[in-house]
Write the structure tokens for this entry.
Amino acid sequence: MSGLILTPTERKAYELAARFAAFSEVTAVALGGSQSSGAADAGSDIDLYIYTRAGIPPNEQAMLIEQSGGAIRVDLGLSYWGGVNVWIDASTGITVDCMYWDVRWIEGEIARVMEAHQPSLGYSTSFCRTVMQSHVLYDPNGWFAALQVRSGREYPEPLRRNIVAQNHPVLRGLITSYLHQIESAVRRQDAVSVNHRVAALLASYFDIIFALNRVLHPGEKRLLAFAQRECAVLPTAMAEDVGCVLTEAGTASGAVVTHIGRLLDRLDEALEAAGFDLGRR
């Protein structure tokens, strides 16, 4: 890193990576999130991915935090999100979000998606994107670089079509589709349920949008901005329609159903223009 001018966030990330590198369990360390996607701002935290072949003992994880300067506050082993450690660095005030990913698990995830072409309900390729766009901080044997190559290969056409086939019917094509569940919730005036199902509908909607454009899914944040910046093919008035759906979802009014119908009609038009047979007559 000689000669490079690093921000405080980057310096802290490299310092932590060097400390993790001392553990025999660690195969690679990478910086992800907004710091690697180009979307970072003054309030962005450090998303550190620790790729391991065995677990690091919890007491040693806690000791590493203390040795790196300590923390104003620390939450260790958050099982709600897969054993994540989160702390606020005492010297800089930067929040560090430290995720431990098993080497065999992430290799399997990349193979499942990019090689076996298996989709999910929403976020189908988000792990692939996390790996592909991460900045390598420690990778002595080139394992992570090879994984990035596998993640960033040309977008497989079977995967693209499988994502659409998996996510499109649940929007409104099934008896138990998201739209039908939202209609039922509106009749009950159940605003909590409306919002719950709208979130699921939008997850599948954006999964389709990114697959349609052969773009790896960027994850949970700034989806409209990413879609507008990276996707050449978008439904007509997508941002306006999404905004209307979100506005009306909080009221549980019948208008939310109307806006979702328009949103999905325009998605179908974009898919059919791209050559997808949706079976509409």
User: Anything to note?
Assistant: The two ends are 61 Å apart (CA to CA).
